[in-house]
């Protein structure tokens, strides 16, 4: 086991959490991520294999699905990002690569993103200040890419709120956008 | 006169204190600044743009051209605010503008006496010559003299926000038509947004005395608004102006969240800029009353009849004890009767129509016209020419002018829709071509009665919703007045004195006549020549009159004369709202490198590189200039080992069976045969043969590459590769994803680089020169098992590696490298030292890959393979890019090592004049080389490869630099590449 | 403008990056005879119609699909939106 200590995207040793009015914005560093792209001509095989790894249907266009240990969301035609707890799946990309074999291209994405979990009443009112997605139509299980404060982000409607993935290097800017918008609304 | 004893939608139980031009006044909640001033007997509110004429309010709404004030003070000072729309708040401070030393005595009112010289086209004619005088002399003087308010130079302390809304139906305007539409759609369950610029919804219902069923207009409004507010599918946005109708149902809106407060609540925005996505929109923006032009029709106290009536009905404020009305239609009579009912004396109704109806309680002067007015700072009397030709003077303090109503068509024009003339109501109505998804109802459509507005709104809503699959029931609408339009168009009273058309830009009937005389007769020419309608109000009250006068002069009908159109914004939008949250440091997002925290602790100086903040150099105690730090970093790296964060380079993961074949087409040089575990430098061309970007591609597996791009081009290169993948070769098996952010990457360079890395790379990985030679790459582990990637590549020209670990460990890795490197005096270096070393080595970077240079220019012509098809290869071979005297990348050394050479300097023969014809090339990158103890540079020189040893001038007319330089190889350091292979 | 993405439905044009004429898909073969002239036409000769135009748009802030958008450059009316990859295949492009 190596002896290097990780930092969160906001450069802390513990995740940052802000409670503003009814909403809570929490930095969520504990997720391993890997992109899975189907190889040409292997789209069906990849979907089947990925579904079996997930233990759930693969997500359709702009959707997110939850399996027993892992979840995944659609990011483009025949490409998904798989999520799993970091502690148990730090080697997620290698594991997926081994299981999916020749039918998919897998790329580690764990540290490409910063994730914020946003929960609480009235988050629709918060997100209408942040991105152009129609939250009323973004039901649970929806996953859309959108622009928040000039940053390309994934906005995922989970069971307990909204998960935002933004570019990790801009974590501070994204955090500023989320919190300042929340203070403006609530 | 002042506040009427009863009536008005103001809260008389509370008093609000405010100041205008330093004077304290009192008003009530519900007042606007204009209504409160009128209630305090203040009619004079500003000076006009050009002639500095005393002016008061012309209207009671956002179309106001006259009563522009500077609102608030300090950083919040806001010029050109319409007093008619400013909601009164406690502590409000306003100042008149364009007047000096005071509003009542304005020195530049002399312009009014010079009006004969200041007619249309005056500036164009007078200030033509000499041309050089324009910028330095004429324009500053004119700007000072002719003007509106002044802006503050202090930063705006308030926050602004932006947001996005979605709806089935956007209702623009909450008058009777808008409210009926919203009620219809809201009850049907449609997602509705109702936006109204006023702080009180209801539109004209707030300003009229007629009833809806048994209720007053205000009561009916309150009831409907309450129901709408209770519906979860309806969003009411008062104080919100829809300022633009954009493509495909997108509307721009500004919500003035805190403008009615002294200061916004903490963290709350002053305004919100909304981008509204609508399936359909219904424009219910009502109509605007137009004035009639007559001599001296701009005195304070002269206003539209509907404004006069609004001030009395809605705000219980009468500008004078005795008033008169000048009208060409029945609606003017309504003003007179409302004022009479409120206890205001009406001296007469001057009706241009011979057959004017009678009116109870006031004399009607049928077939009469107002020929002149008097009163320097406020109206004292009007002179009327009676039907029998005799003249009569009426002593009045206010005159309501009713020239007819113009449907408020502004938003229908934003996609170049042209209004059409409707003779029955003598006005332009929306044309057939409306912005996509827009319909128009009520007075905006030319249906002026309340009955027509209510039913038009409801019917339109039902029709629109049916269109998008929502069925709505007709609501029960109250009985309301249904008076027909009775108008005999009348535009201006003849005479020789000035009669104003455009109050804000001081355009008179005379100016239109002059434009006609000088053949500027089309409406578009008329507009530009006279500036009619070009002020901040876009001529809402003036365009119609101007083109009617032109129609008269040309003998054409108004229909044939046509009209100009409106463009966004409907009313001015503050820059703050457009900027939103993105101001100051947050103007754009910042990208931080994985070592940012550590670098900050080291006291690094940072530089913006695109959105990235990178360490530029790491100053040490005692170093006085940046050069000392940079020179030290370069020398230390070349002597032992240095470390630099290079995470910012773009990294693209390329996988698939055809990955190698794909890169073979993307890069001009070959990649098909690159062995696994090896890296190759690659040059990408644009299809026109010009160099686009360069970087490396590392082959991690048969079907897996990691491609790097320059920091600046990471996004465009990815886009380009996706274009090639999806559009050019859709059946190649290749998958792309950016991994720039995922890996923290550090360059470790210098003779001791390997020794340092051997201390952290896990022992099972052999990185000796034999096992891991120059241009090797591999997946390894470090520090006891952390997955990492190692690339033996060198930008500095030294023995060098780039090592990458997952970003979250980047901070720990840089600290470990520093710790492990202590025995080698490891030195962190920043982008300046990086730049110096790459210039010393003669590596091209962004300055050389500048969008104008080819592989051949860069000295890499032979890299472009003709054995394969790659992007840009064919056109890179064309004649024009392959001239013998073409540019070549070379190095420059000043004859005097202490003489600086500047990037951007141009190259000339010694003794040649500094002219474009003598230009031989230019310097692209320059620095001081601490290794060579001399300034050095690289750049492009015509036939440069044949001029080694020649001496030229590197001169910059911009800076005055003029240095003799010797042409040398661009590779100043280790040209044989022995160090990087060591 | 709103572009009706074939997969994602209506999307704001702000999410896209514009490239230009969809004929850029028809890249000539660089190894074929007459490639010089073909590439000259390809790189430089394009129509710029006032009216209906087939254009390439990249959903950069979305799903990274290249789209062929048929748009009236005068009215901005969009009559057809296709995945560029499908268009390329239909026009005979492969690997």
UniProtKB/TrEMBL annotation, chain A:
| UniProt-listed Gene3D superfamilies | Probable tRNA modification gtpase trme, domain 1 (3.30.1360.120)
- Family annotation (InterPro entries): TrmE/GcvT-like
Provide the protein name: Sarcosine oxidase subunit gamma
Question: What species is this protein from?
Answer: Roseinatronobacter bogoriensis subsp. barguzinensis
UniProtKB/TrEMBL annotation, chain B:
Where does the record place the SoxA A3 domain?
Answer: 497-581
**Which one GO biological process term can you cite for this protein?**
tetrahydrofolate metabolic process
Domain of life of the organism in this record? Bacteria
The record's InterPro entries line, in alphabetical order, gives: 2Fe-2S-bd_N (IPR042204), BFD-like_2Fe2S-bd_dom_sf (IPR041854), FAD/NAD-bd_sf (IPR036188), GcvT/YgfZ/DmdA (IPR028896), GcvT/YgfZ_C (IPR029043), GcvT_C (IPR013977), GCVT_N (IPR006222), Sarcosine_oxidase_asu (IPR006277)
UniProt keyword Oxidoreductase, yes or no: yes
Keyword list, A-Z: Oxidoreductase
Q: Which GO terms describe its molecular function?
A: sarcosine oxidase activity
Respond yes or no to whether keyword Oxidoreductase is given for this record.
yes
Q: Which Gene3D superfamilies match?
A: 2Fe-2S iron-sulphur cluster binding domain, sarcosine oxidase, alpha subunit, N-terminal domain, BFD-like [2Fe-2S]-binding domain, FAD/NAD(P)-binding domain, Probable tRNA modification gtpase trme, domain 1
Please name one Pfam family that this protein belongs to.
Answer: SO_alpha_A3
Question: What are the GCVT N-terminal domain coordinates in residue numbering?
Answer: 596-868
Question: Residue limits of the Aminomethyltransferase C-terminal domain?
Answer: 888-974
Show the NCBIfam families listed in the entry: soxA (TIGR01372)
Q: Which family does it belong to?
A: Belongs to the GcvT family.
The name of this protein is Sarcosine oxidase subunit alpha family protein
Species, as recorded: Roseinatronobacter bogoriensis subsp. barguzinensis
TrEMBL record, chain C:
Top-level division of the source organism's lineage:
Bacteria
Do you know which InterPro entries this protein is assigned to? SoxD, SoxD_sf
Single GO MF annotation: sarcosine oxidase activity
Which GO terms of type biological process are on file? tetrahydrofolate metabolic process
What is this protein identified as? Answer: Sarcosine oxidase subunit delta
Organism name: Roseinatronobacter bogoriensis subsp. barguzinensis
The major lineage groups are:
Bacteria, Pseudomonadati, Pseudomonadota, Alphaproteobacteria, Rhodobacterales
